[in-house]
Amino acid sequence: MKLILFDVDGTLLSCGPQVRPLFAEALGEVYGRAGDLDGYSFSGKTDPRIVLDLMTAAGVTEAEVRSALPRMQEAYLRRLERRLRRDAMVLLPGVVELLERLAARRDVALGLLTGNWQRGARIKLSRFDLNRFFRFGAFGEDGVQRHELPPVALRRAAAEAGREFAAADVLIVGDSTEDVACARAHGVPCLAVATGWTPAERLRGAGARWVVADLPSAERVFAAFAPA
Ligand SMILES: [Mg+2]
User: Fold this and answer.
1) Which residues place a Cβ less than 5 A from the ion ligand 1?
2) Per-residue pLDDT tens over the stretch 12-58
3) Which CATH code is given to the segment(s) 2-15+88-225?
4) Which of 24, 136, 147, 219 could form a disulfide with 156, with the two C-beta atoms 3.0–4.6 Å apart?
5) Topology, domain 17-86
């Protein structure tokens, strides 16, 4: 049995530029400043890491940032729930077809591996009815650094499937060099899709086993990883 773990932003969907202002407002509400949000790359970072990076750089002590994180999470997710607009988002090519095909297989389990806080991931996925494909995952609550997430996802997958997964039987699918690095840290193969902010060349340089322009171009990779 194989396990495939999907990143959300840049891999399954894109929210466009509408999330940054919501994040900025929430930071302003909780910490009284938004920091250098425009100069910061969110790509592949967990939500708590984004908050910690931006706020410590803006002069808030790490202890203060951490103690207000639950309030920050609430302030951001409240805005995301109310204001994330599907018509300003993009469902990436081939996503529904691929997930439907994989979900129909009894020898493949699907999960999420994303830096979004779980509720944030669920809100984003709900806009295209994608939550139905994912019963478990690892999320922003599970670690500040992305490389902390794969063991959590594997534990939850094992609980769900009633069996353990070896690293070689897992595939991490993501769009950033952080996805690639977190897979490599655990000896898990990574399929990188250049549908986010990171060019294929950089994903290749980061050591992804496969790099494709988009998910429909990964047909052969899925066939090789999990032969039907
Ligand atoms: Mg991503």
Assistant:
1) 7, 9-10, 175
2) 999 999 999 999 999 999 999 999 999 999 999 999 999 999 999 99
3) 3.40.50.1000
4) 136
5) DNA polymerase; domain 1 (1.10.150)
Q: How far is 99 from 109, CA to CA, in rounded Å?
A: 11
Contact (CB, 8 A) for 165 and 144: no
Sheet strands (E) in the chain: 2-6, 13-14, 90-91, 108-113, 137-138, 170-174, 190-193, 210-212
CA distance 65 to 30: 9
63 CA to middle of ligand 1, Å? 27
Distance of CA 7 from the midpoint of ligand 1 (Å):
6
Residues of each domain in the chain carrying CATH 3.40.50.1000: 2-15+88-225
Ligand 1 centroid to residue 153 C-alpha, Å: 16
Query: Considering only CA atoms, which of 187, 157, 193 is closest in space to residue 174?
Result: 193
pTM of the model: 0.97
CA dist., res. 99 & res. 12, Å (int) = 10
Give the distance, in angstroms, between the CA of residue 122 and the centroid of all CA atoms in the same chain: 11
Determine the length of the chain: 228
At 197 the three-state DSSP class reads coil
